[in-house]
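Reminder: ligand-aware prediction takes two inputs, not one.
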Amino acid sequence: MSLEIDDIHISYGKVRAVDGVTVSLPTGGRLGVIGPNGSGKSTLINAISGAVTDRGTITIDGHRLRGGSQRAAAHAGISRTYQTPQTFTELSCIENVMLGLGPGDKRAKSTGAPRERREHRRTREALALLDEVGLLDLAETSAAILTYGQQQMLGLARALATNPLVLLLDEPAAGLNSAETEALSTVLDKANARGVALLLVEHKMDFVTKLCPRIAVLSGGKLVADGPHAEVLADPRVVDAYLGAPSNA
Ligand code: ADP
Ligand code: MG
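Here is what comes back for the chain with magnesium ion:
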């Protein structure tokens, strides 16, 4: 799997949220994406995951993804988490994760396993994922009572349940305490070791640099730097992008 994002443009009215971004993520790679607020990070994730119609192309292993189709992106192995966790509060934690496993497990179908055994397997898989993100004890509990950090971890478990090739993470460490951030790091490391490529949008710089050897920087919807994190963070254009952000003006 290699993900190629080629000259993507997304505008909202006159706002050029993503303005001609070209970036790639090699098989099993890890790419950090940073930039000031409003620089287009979430919009880029939306584009890759198919939520917004884009101009430009996105290909996975040379296969072009249809813009504006979340289904096509999911089918190609792209999974994501959200900046604001999308928790189904009327469901239990395990039910939230099972949504990621999908209704029909293709592998189960091909072995002709009866429905009951299939359900057992889905339950086992969901429990294993909850265990991985530290929520096993809350499996049967309503997701409505989770803290913000726990909701982030539940969203991650649901995203991993799809067995993705590429995982897009939109500020997963925001609002997590240091123990939760450490746990998140471990889960992402493990997923990456299994071959899941990571595209990590994040503000916590030490967290990004620890996880991602390579970093891309967005500013005003444009890619202003892309390379090894030590080089990128020393780049005057990157320093400018942050110091020039409206929030500091
Ligand atoms: P980031 O994630 O880097 O903070 P976003 O991708 O959320 O940035 O936003 C980039 C720009 O696009 C901002 O100017 C934002 O206001 C605008 N934008 C994002 N989503 C929408 C939307 N749904 N409608 C209108 N403008 C949007
Ligand atoms: Mg954002």
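Residues 217 and 227 are 9 Å apart (CA to CA). The longest helix spans residues 115-132. We will return to this case in the review session.
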